[in-house]
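Q: Hi! First time doing this. I have a protein sequence and I read that you can turn it into a structure. Is that right? Here it is:
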Amino acid sequence: MKMGTALEREWKRLLEKEERMLCSAENKKESKLDGKIKDLTGKIEEKIPEKLSATLDAAFYKAFLAIFEKGTGAIERMFKGDELQLEFQVNDFRMDKKPTKKSLKKLEAAGRKSRVLNSAVTTAEGIGLGLLGIGIPDIPVFLSMLLKGLYEMAAGYGYDYHRREEQIFILRLIAAGLAEGAEKRKADQLVDGWIGLSEEKEAFPFEEEVKRAVSALSGGMLTAKFIQGLPVAGVVGGMCNPVVYQKVMRYAAMKYKKRYLSGKRKNA
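A: Yes, that's right. Below is the predicted 3D structure, encoded as structure tokens:
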């Protein structure tokens, strides 16, 4: 099966988009608005209890382990995995018979609808609990929705999220999706390395992979979770949930697409 010029062009566009994303993260200039937000965030962070960061890390870590060990079944009840697998088989067959950009769009469309719905749920959940002044306790709920979206995307591209290797890939997607600056490229290389898209495949113990993802989530949500713990004002903190969700999912969509296309190119 030949990839076809249409998908080769799509592969090149994807690589260019990826490089723009990485360069943007490395060379991002701080605007006046960013500076003001940074100053405001800094003032808020000064009031955050030192133990809150450790509490947030522990909450995410426990939630990850609980979901991976016992909670996957509960998440699966929130979406139709069998239908996603069947849809992938149909779309993948179409790709093998007629590998065009249109065929690839069918694969991408499968995950796009769920991303919109999941984002809406995380928004409602974050704002609703923010009104009540609930911050840290909503982490298992948010994490379940984040993993639901990533599981749906994995299934939509034909990958088994029950496998430990796939779970490690998902953890690396979270860490890389939230990384900033020069760390973005390093984290991205770890993602590509794990799926054989680069020469190096650096392996960490599973618990270490969880901690890296936890660090990324905690670092990106510490201030927001502190604010979310304040009644009414917590609405602002609750808005962080959909922002983090979308950031991870946009990155994951790009990497799953790259991984799928890479497999097709190897088998061409």
